Amino acid sequence: MKLLPGPLRRRRPAEPDGRPAAVPGDGDLRRGHDALVREREKEAERQRRREAALEVPISVAGWLDERTGLGPFMRGLLYRKVPPSNWFYTLGSATLFAFLSQAVTGVFLAMYYRPSATEAYTSVQHITNDVFLGQLVRGMHKWGATVMMILIFLHLGRTFFFGAYKYPRELNWIIGVVLLVLTMVMGLTGYLLPFDQRSFWATVVAVNLNSSGPIIGPYLADFLRGGAEFGATTISRFYAIHMLLVPGLMAALIGAHLYLVVKLGVTAPPWMKAEKARELAKEEI
Ligand code: HEM
User: Fold this and answer.
1) Domain boundary among 8, 41, 72
2) Range of the domain at 215
């Protein structure tokens, strides 16, 4: 109880660190104060760690830049100006996504598939019936092939109708045509792999059609069959083309295709070009 006015009250002796000494009943206050200090220290430590974590990507990027000199290229890529675009421009990326999905599901299928005339059919049945999520992954790969075909044609149509095949993008158009042919080769070589009656006879027909082509036709058919007749080597040849040769080529060509898209930019939509032409015509008048 405070009976005396402030200045006359007896002062408690100070503790060595300058804080007033504790008096009975003061304990709760002191404990509360210490807990608050500890909490503030913890919060400061958390803040320091958060800031250090934010620094990590920056130092990783700096480390890489010092060793590769990729900095200016990445700045050019990320800060380049892009024209106002619309949904039509997403078709190329959608095709790219379909390609990546085929690559990922294909890797999982390859873990169980056996490319031999005696084992191919049973290994596909094993994937469908026994392997965990096998049917789903197989379905994604099978339907993904169809989706990729549809998307690539829609993307081709977009680039054609927007006049993106003209100067200076002719090379990118040619790369695109090669990508389209390679996507079809993926479809053809993949179709044989389940090795059931339908896939076998459909491939016989397709290869015979190839052989009727001019000049290179018969050679191409011999190359695909691995000889004059369908034999034990045909399926391993189709498998090697399907999972190594063509995907490798496609990955390299997609890289070149995207490099040119970044370098040249995308074509403006025809209605924007028409608007610009009208504005120019007005200025001339
Ligand atoms: C695996 C197949 C393909 C992938 C992954 C792919 C990917 C892309 C991407 C992401 C773009 C930029 C965004 C866009 O304009 O949509 C693009 C642009 C382009 N693509 Fe493809 N593409 C493929 C096949 C094709 C085909 C078959 C053609 C034509 C024959 C083609 C011709 C072009 C052209 C000319 C451009 C430039 C577009 C412009 O300047 O506006 N691409 N591609």
Assistant:
1) 72
2) 88-265
End-to-end CA distance of the chain: 97
144 CA distance to ligand 1 middle (Å) = 18
- Please check whether residues 107 and 224 belong to one and the same domain: yes
Query: Could you give the CA distance from residue 256 to residue 106 in angstroms, rounded to a whole number?
Result: 23
What's the number of domains the chain is made of?
2
Do residues 40 and 160 both lie within one domain?
no
Pocket of ligand 1 (CB under 6 A): 89, 91-93, 95-96, 99, 152, 155-156, 159, 162, 164-165, 169, 172-173, 176-177, 179-180, 254, 257-258, 261, 266-267
Nearest CA owner, ligand 1 atom 26: 176
Element (H, E) at 226: none
* DSSP annotation of 113: -
CB 178 within 8 A of CB 239: no
Per-residue pLDDT of the chain (285 residues; tens, 9 = 90+): 455 555 555 555 555 565 555 555 567 788 889 999 999 999 999 999 999 999 999 999 999 999 999 999 899 888 988 877 799 999 999 999 999 999 999 999 999 999 999 999 999 999 999 999 999 999 999 999 999 999 999 999 999 999 999 999 999 999 999 999 999 999 999 999 999 999 999 999 999 999 999 999 999 999 999 999 998 899 999 999 999 999 999 999 999 999 999 999 999 888 887 777 788 787 776
